[in-house]
Design a protein that fits this description.
10 helices, 14 strands, Rossmann fold, two-stranded antiparallel ribbon, twelve-stranded mixed sheet, 32% helix, alpha/beta
Protein backbone atom coordinates (compact mmCIF):
# COMPACT_ATOMS: atom_id res chain seq x y z
CA UNK A 1 0.00 0.00 0.00
CA UNK A 2 1.10 3.55 -0.66
CA UNK A 3 1.53 5.92 2.27
CA UNK A 4 -1.64 7.92 1.55
CA UNK A 5 -3.69 4.72 1.26
CA UNK A 6 -2.36 3.44 4.60
CA UNK A 7 -3.29 6.67 6.35
CA UNK A 8 -6.74 6.65 4.79
CA UNK A 9 -7.51 2.96 5.38
CA UNK A 10 -5.81 1.98 8.68
CA UNK A 11 -8.04 -1.07 9.14
CA UNK A 12 -6.60 -2.55 5.94
CA UNK A 13 -3.06 -1.24 6.52
CA UNK A 14 -2.80 -2.92 9.93
CA UNK A 15 -3.96 -6.24 8.48
CA UNK A 16 -1.77 -6.65 5.42
CA UNK A 17 -0.12 -9.98 4.77
CA UNK A 18 3.52 -10.21 5.83
CA UNK A 19 4.78 -9.82 2.27
CA UNK A 20 2.47 -6.85 1.63
CA UNK A 21 3.54 -5.22 4.89
CA UNK A 22 7.24 -5.65 4.06
CA UNK A 23 6.72 -4.11 0.61
CA UNK A 24 4.66 -1.21 2.01
CA UNK A 25 7.12 -0.34 4.77
CA UNK A 26 10.14 -0.62 2.49
CA UNK A 27 8.57 1.62 -0.17
CA UNK A 28 7.51 4.23 2.40
CA UNK A 29 10.98 4.35 4.00
CA UNK A 30 12.77 4.40 0.65
CA UNK A 31 10.64 7.33 -0.51
CA UNK A 32 11.22 9.32 2.68
CA UNK A 33 14.94 8.52 2.64
CA UNK A 34 15.28 9.66 -0.98
CA UNK A 35 13.59 13.01 -0.23
CA UNK A 36 15.81 13.84 2.73
CA UNK A 37 19.02 12.62 1.09
CA UNK A 38 18.31 14.84 -1.92
CA UNK A 39 17.11 18.01 -0.21
CA UNK A 40 18.97 18.03 3.12
CA UNK A 41 22.65 18.94 2.77
CA UNK A 42 23.55 17.86 6.30
CA UNK A 43 21.85 14.48 5.96
CA UNK A 44 23.17 13.98 2.42
CA UNK A 45 26.69 14.24 3.83
CA UNK A 46 25.86 11.44 6.30
CA UNK A 47 24.55 9.29 3.45
CA UNK A 48 27.62 9.93 1.32
CA UNK A 49 29.90 9.09 4.24
CA UNK A 50 27.99 5.82 4.71
CA UNK A 51 28.05 5.12 0.97
CA UNK A 52 24.29 4.59 0.74
CA UNK A 53 21.61 5.96 -1.59
CA UNK A 54 17.93 5.29 -2.18
CA UNK A 55 18.84 2.83 -4.95
CA UNK A 56 20.39 0.60 -2.27
CA UNK A 57 17.04 0.17 -0.44
CA UNK A 58 15.24 -2.73 -2.14
CA UNK A 59 14.02 -4.95 0.70
CA UNK A 60 13.16 -4.74 4.38
CA UNK A 61 16.64 -6.03 5.22
CA UNK A 62 18.14 -2.98 3.50
CA UNK A 63 16.53 -0.49 5.92
CA UNK A 64 19.46 -1.03 8.30
CA UNK A 65 21.61 0.87 5.78
CA UNK A 66 19.70 4.13 6.32
CA UNK A 67 21.84 6.49 8.46
CA UNK A 68 20.34 7.26 11.86
CA UNK A 69 20.35 10.56 13.77
CA UNK A 70 21.23 10.11 17.46
CA UNK A 71 18.39 11.55 19.52
CA UNK A 72 20.81 13.76 21.46
CA UNK A 73 21.31 15.84 18.30
CA UNK A 74 17.89 17.39 18.93
CA UNK A 75 19.29 18.90 22.15
CA UNK A 76 22.11 20.74 20.37
CA UNK A 77 21.96 24.53 19.90
CA UNK A 78 22.45 24.05 16.15
CA UNK A 79 19.67 21.43 15.81
CA UNK A 80 18.19 23.51 12.97
CA UNK A 81 20.81 21.93 10.66
CA UNK A 82 18.73 18.73 10.84
CA UNK A 83 15.92 20.42 8.91
CA UNK A 84 15.01 19.44 5.38
CA UNK A 85 12.12 21.90 5.19
CA UNK A 86 12.90 25.61 5.50
CA UNK A 87 12.39 27.13 8.94
CA UNK A 88 9.77 29.43 7.43
CA UNK A 89 7.55 26.36 6.92
CA UNK A 90 7.77 25.18 10.55
CA UNK A 91 4.30 25.02 12.11
CA UNK A 92 5.04 23.30 15.43
CA UNK A 93 7.97 23.11 17.80
CA UNK A 94 7.58 20.21 20.20
CA UNK A 95 9.82 20.20 23.26
CA UNK A 96 10.66 17.74 25.99
CA UNK A 97 12.79 18.52 29.03
CA UNK A 98 14.11 15.67 31.14
CA UNK A 99 15.96 15.52 34.43
CA UNK A 100 19.00 17.20 32.84
CA UNK A 101 17.03 20.33 32.01
CA UNK A 102 18.21 20.58 28.37
CA UNK A 103 15.20 20.50 26.00
CA UNK A 104 14.90 18.42 22.87
CA UNK A 105 13.37 20.51 20.09
CA UNK A 106 11.62 18.77 17.20
CA UNK A 107 10.34 21.15 14.51
CA UNK A 108 7.52 20.00 12.25
CA UNK A 109 6.56 21.62 8.99
CA UNK A 110 3.02 22.01 7.65
CA UNK A 111 2.99 18.78 5.61
CA UNK A 112 4.31 16.71 8.50
CA UNK A 113 1.70 18.13 10.91
CA UNK A 114 -1.11 17.27 8.49
CA UNK A 115 0.17 13.71 8.09
CA UNK A 116 0.74 13.17 11.80
CA UNK A 117 -2.69 14.45 12.83
CA UNK A 118 -4.27 12.15 10.25
CA UNK A 119 -2.18 9.20 11.47
CA UNK A 120 -2.93 9.66 15.17
CA UNK A 121 -6.63 10.19 14.55
CA UNK A 122 -6.71 7.04 12.39
CA UNK A 123 -4.93 4.99 15.08
CA UNK A 124 -7.30 6.14 17.82
CA UNK A 125 -10.26 5.08 15.72
CA UNK A 126 -8.58 1.79 14.82
CA UNK A 127 -7.58 0.78 18.35
CA UNK A 128 -10.10 2.50 20.62
CA UNK A 129 -13.21 2.62 18.43
CA UNK A 130 -14.40 5.75 20.21
CA UNK A 131 -16.75 8.27 18.62
CA UNK A 132 -18.50 9.69 21.65
CA UNK A 133 -18.22 9.94 25.42
CA UNK A 134 -16.27 12.19 27.77
CA UNK A 135 -12.56 12.37 28.50
CA UNK A 136 -11.06 13.16 31.89
CA UNK A 137 -7.58 14.39 30.95
CA UNK A 138 -5.12 14.05 33.82
CA UNK A 139 -2.64 16.42 32.21
CA UNK A 140 -2.38 20.12 31.38
CA UNK A 141 -4.30 21.46 28.38
CA UNK A 142 -2.56 22.35 25.14
CA UNK A 143 -3.33 26.00 25.93
CA UNK A 144 -1.13 25.74 29.02
CA UNK A 145 1.60 23.54 27.51
CA UNK A 146 1.46 23.93 23.71
CA UNK A 147 5.02 22.62 23.32
CA UNK A 148 4.47 19.20 24.95
CA UNK A 149 4.22 16.31 22.51
CA UNK A 150 2.40 14.04 24.98
CA UNK A 151 -0.31 16.65 25.53
CA UNK A 152 -0.63 17.24 21.76
CA UNK A 153 -1.10 13.51 21.18
CA UNK A 154 -3.73 13.27 23.91
CA UNK A 155 -5.51 16.34 22.58
CA UNK A 156 -6.31 14.61 19.27
CA UNK A 157 -8.74 12.43 21.24
CA UNK A 158 -10.91 15.51 21.82
CA UNK A 159 -12.08 15.31 18.23
CA UNK A 160 -13.64 11.92 18.96
CA UNK A 161 -15.36 12.82 22.23
CA UNK A 162 -18.48 14.79 23.15
CA UNK A 163 -17.01 16.45 26.23
CA UNK A 164 -13.71 16.71 28.07
CA UNK A 165 -12.05 18.29 31.10
CA UNK A 166 -8.38 18.99 31.84
CA UNK A 167 -7.78 18.52 35.56
CA UNK A 168 -4.13 19.64 35.82
CA UNK A 169 -3.90 23.44 35.87
CA UNK A 170 -0.88 25.52 36.82
CA UNK A 171 0.83 22.15 37.41
CA UNK A 172 -1.54 21.27 40.26
CA UNK A 173 -3.76 18.19 40.44
CA UNK A 174 -6.87 17.95 42.62
CA UNK A 175 -8.25 14.37 42.82
CA UNK A 176 -11.51 15.63 44.36
CA UNK A 177 -12.12 17.77 41.29
CA UNK A 178 -11.46 14.70 39.13
CA UNK A 179 -14.08 12.70 41.04
CA UNK A 180 -16.55 15.56 40.81
CA UNK A 181 -16.15 15.66 37.05
CA UNK A 182 -16.67 11.89 36.76
CA UNK A 183 -19.84 12.22 38.87
CA UNK A 184 -21.09 14.99 36.58
CA UNK A 185 -20.86 12.70 33.54
CA UNK A 186 -22.35 9.64 35.24
CA UNK A 187 -25.36 8.17 33.41
CA UNK A 188 -25.06 10.74 30.61
CA UNK A 189 -21.99 9.53 28.69
CA UNK A 190 -19.18 6.96 28.71
CA UNK A 191 -16.28 8.19 30.84
CA UNK A 192 -12.67 7.75 29.71
CA UNK A 193 -9.51 8.61 31.66
CA UNK A 194 -6.46 9.84 29.75
CA UNK A 195 -3.06 10.77 31.16
CA UNK A 196 0.49 9.72 31.99
CA UNK A 197 0.76 6.67 34.29
CA UNK A 198 2.04 8.65 37.29
CA UNK A 199 -1.01 10.96 37.33
CA UNK A 200 -3.48 8.12 36.86
CA UNK A 201 -1.56 6.51 39.73
CA UNK A 202 -2.12 9.59 41.89
CA UNK A 203 -5.86 9.33 41.33
CA UNK A 204 -5.74 5.62 42.21
CA UNK A 205 -3.73 6.36 45.35
CA UNK A 206 -6.35 8.88 46.47
CA UNK A 207 -9.16 6.38 45.89
CA UNK A 208 -7.21 3.76 47.82
CA UNK A 209 -6.53 6.06 50.80
CA UNK A 210 -10.14 7.24 50.89
CA UNK A 211 -11.46 3.69 50.34
CA UNK A 212 -13.51 4.78 47.33
CA UNK A 213 -14.37 2.22 44.64
CA UNK A 214 -15.96 3.63 41.50
CA UNK A 215 -17.73 1.72 38.78
CA UNK A 216 -17.18 3.43 35.45
CA UNK A 217 -18.89 2.35 32.24
CA UNK A 218 -18.67 -0.89 30.20
CA UNK A 219 -16.93 0.92 27.31
CA UNK A 220 -14.68 3.11 29.47
CA UNK A 221 -10.99 3.25 28.57
CA UNK A 222 -7.89 4.26 30.49
CA UNK A 223 -5.36 5.55 27.95
CA UNK A 224 -1.78 6.27 29.06
CA UNK A 225 1.36 7.70 27.48
CA UNK A 226 4.57 8.97 29.02
CA UNK A 227 6.55 6.06 30.39
CA UNK A 228 6.48 3.82 33.43
CA UNK A 229 9.39 5.27 35.37
CA UNK A 230 9.13 8.32 37.60
CA UNK A 231 11.71 11.12 37.62
CA UNK A 232 13.00 9.64 40.91
CA UNK A 233 13.94 6.45 39.04
CA UNK A 234 11.17 4.44 40.67
CA UNK A 235 9.35 2.10 38.28
CA UNK A 236 5.57 1.86 38.14
CA UNK A 237 4.38 -1.76 38.05
CA UNK A 238 2.02 -2.31 35.13
CA UNK A 239 0.46 -5.37 36.77
CA UNK A 240 -0.24 -3.49 40.01
CA UNK A 241 -1.48 -0.50 38.01
CA UNK A 242 -3.99 -2.62 36.07
CA UNK A 243 -5.15 -4.37 39.23
CA UNK A 244 -5.83 -1.05 41.00
CA UNK A 245 -7.71 0.30 37.98
CA UNK A 246 -9.97 -2.73 38.04
CA UNK A 247 -10.48 -2.45 41.82
CA UNK A 248 -11.00 1.31 42.16
CA UNK A 249 -12.37 2.29 38.74
CA UNK A 250 -14.14 -0.91 37.70
CA UNK A 251 -12.32 -1.06 34.34
CA UNK A 252 -10.96 -4.47 33.20
CA UNK A 253 -7.32 -4.81 32.11
CA UNK A 254 -8.16 -5.15 28.40
CA UNK A 255 -9.62 -1.62 28.50
CA UNK A 256 -6.33 -0.18 29.82
CA UNK A 257 -4.23 0.89 26.83
CA UNK A 258 -0.71 2.27 26.94
CA UNK A 259 1.11 3.93 24.04
CA UNK A 260 4.78 4.38 23.18
CA UNK A 261 6.41 7.22 21.30
CA UNK A 262 8.95 10.02 21.57
CA UNK A 263 8.76 13.65 20.56
CA UNK A 264 11.57 13.37 18.01
CA UNK A 265 9.62 10.75 16.04
CA UNK A 266 6.08 10.80 14.69
CA UNK A 267 5.60 7.11 15.44
CA UNK A 268 2.96 6.29 18.03
CA UNK A 269 2.64 2.60 18.91
CA UNK A 270 -0.79 1.92 20.42
CA UNK A 271 -1.74 -1.11 22.50
CA UNK A 272 -4.45 -3.48 21.41
CA UNK A 273 -6.61 -5.39 23.88
CA UNK A 274 -3.80 -7.94 24.25
CA UNK A 275 -1.40 -5.23 25.45
CA UNK A 276 0.87 -5.45 22.43
CA UNK A 277 2.00 -2.07 21.09
CA UNK A 278 1.53 -2.10 17.32
CA UNK A 279 4.01 -0.17 15.20
CA UNK A 280 2.03 1.59 12.45
CA UNK A 281 2.89 0.46 8.91
CA UNK A 282 4.24 3.90 8.00
CA UNK A 283 6.94 3.37 10.65
CA UNK A 284 9.62 0.75 11.28
CA UNK A 285 11.41 -0.14 14.51
CA UNK A 286 14.94 -1.47 14.21
CA UNK A 287 16.61 -2.96 17.29
CA UNK A 288 20.34 -2.27 17.37
CA UNK A 289 23.21 -3.86 19.24
CA UNK A 290 24.16 -1.78 22.29
CA UNK A 291 27.88 -2.11 21.56
CA UNK A 292 27.61 -1.50 17.80
CA UNK A 293 24.46 0.33 16.73
CA UNK A 294 25.21 -0.33 13.05
CA UNK A 295 24.21 -3.94 13.73
CA UNK A 296 20.52 -4.81 13.65
CA UNK A 297 19.34 -7.56 16.00
CA UNK A 298 16.79 -10.24 15.19
CA UNK A 299 13.18 -9.94 16.46
CA UNK A 300 12.96 -10.90 20.12
CA UNK A 301 16.49 -9.73 20.93
CA UNK A 302 16.92 -6.81 23.34
CA UNK A 303 18.79 -3.76 22.15
CA UNK A 304 18.64 -0.03 21.42
CA UNK A 305 15.42 1.10 19.75
CA UNK A 306 15.80 2.93 16.43
CA UNK A 307 12.62 4.57 15.10
CA UNK A 308 12.14 5.09 11.37
CA UNK A 309 9.23 7.23 10.28
CA UNK A 310 7.99 7.97 6.76
CA UNK A 311 5.62 10.79 7.74
CA UNK A 312 8.24 13.46 8.37
CA UNK A 313 9.09 15.92 5.62
CA UNK A 314 10.54 18.45 8.06
CA UNK A 315 13.65 16.48 8.95
CA UNK A 316 14.94 12.91 8.52
CA UNK A 317 12.99 11.01 11.19
CA UNK A 318 15.39 8.10 11.30
CA UNK A 319 16.20 8.29 15.00
CA UNK A 320 18.54 6.28 17.21
CA UNK A 321 16.88 6.57 20.61
CA UNK A 322 18.26 6.00 24.10
CA UNK A 323 15.54 3.46 24.82
CA UNK A 324 16.08 -0.27 25.15
CA UNK A 325 13.55 -2.88 24.06
CA UNK A 326 12.51 -5.52 21.54
CA UNK A 327 10.30 -5.98 18.50
CA UNK A 328 8.06 -8.93 17.79
CA UNK A 329 6.85 -10.11 14.38
CA UNK A 330 4.70 -13.01 15.57
CA UNK A 331 0.96 -12.86 14.80
CA UNK A 332 -1.13 -10.99 17.37
CA UNK A 333 -4.44 -12.51 18.53
CA UNK A 334 -6.12 -9.21 17.62
CA UNK A 335 -5.51 -9.99 13.94
CA UNK A 336 -3.20 -7.06 13.20
CA UNK A 337 0.09 -7.74 11.44
CA UNK A 338 3.50 -6.10 11.25
CA UNK A 339 5.69 -5.24 14.23
CA UNK A 340 4.91 -4.79 17.90
CA UNK A 341 7.40 -3.04 20.18
CA UNK A 342 8.21 -3.42 23.87
CA UNK A 343 10.02 -0.73 25.82
CA UNK A 344 12.15 -2.06 28.71
CA UNK A 345 14.29 0.75 30.07
CA UNK A 346 16.52 3.69 29.23
CA UNK A 347 20.13 3.18 28.26
CA UNK A 348 22.53 3.37 31.17
CA UNK A 349 23.56 6.99 31.59
CA UNK A 350 20.62 8.36 29.59
CA UNK A 351 18.43 10.90 31.34
CA UNK A 352 14.68 10.49 31.69
CA UNK A 353 13.37 12.89 29.10
CA UNK A 354 9.64 12.59 28.44
CA UNK A 355 6.96 15.23 28.97
CA UNK A 356 5.43 13.25 31.83
CA UNK A 357 8.73 13.40 33.75
CA UNK A 358 8.77 17.19 33.48
CA UNK A 359 5.16 17.48 34.65
CA UNK A 360 5.62 15.13 37.59
CA UNK A 361 8.84 16.76 38.73
CA UNK A 362 7.23 20.21 38.72
CA UNK A 363 4.05 19.04 40.48
CA UNK A 364 6.12 17.41 43.22
CA UNK A 365 8.22 20.55 43.67
CA UNK A 366 5.08 22.68 43.99
CA UNK A 367 3.57 20.33 46.56
CA UNK A 368 6.76 20.41 48.65
CA UNK A 369 6.69 24.22 48.61
CA UNK A 370 3.04 24.23 49.65
CA UNK A 371 3.68 21.85 52.54
CA UNK A 372 6.52 24.04 53.81
CA UNK A 373 4.57 27.28 53.75
CA UNK A 374 3.51 28.70 57.13
CA UNK A 375 -0.25 29.37 57.20
CA UNK A 376 -0.99 33.09 57.63
CA UNK A 377 -2.97 32.52 60.83
CA UNK A 378 -0.03 30.74 62.42
CA UNK A 379 2.65 33.18 61.35
CA UNK A 380 4.34 35.13 64.16
CA UNK A 381 3.23 38.75 64.57
CA UNK A 382 6.07 41.22 64.46
CA UNK A 383 6.38 43.87 67.17
Amino acid sequence: MELAAMLGCPDVAFRQSESEWEASVTAAMRGAFAEHAEHNAFYRAQCEAAGVSAEDIDTLADLVKIPLLPVRMFKQPDAHVLMTAPLTEVELEIRSTGTGGVPSVARRDVKTVSRVMTAIFAQYREFFQVGKGAGLFLCPSTAETPEMGMVKAFNVLNGLLDDHAYIVRDYAFDPEEALGQLDKWEESMTRHIIGPPFLVGRLLRYLELEDIALKLDPESLVVTLGGWKRYTGESISREEFNAKIEKYLGIPADRVRDMYGMIESNMLAVECEHHRKHVPPWSYVSIRDVEDTDVELAPGKTGVIALMDALSTGYPAFILSEDVGEVDHTPCPCGRTGQTVSFRRRLQGAELGCCAVSIEKFIDSQEIVAECEIPAAAAPVEG
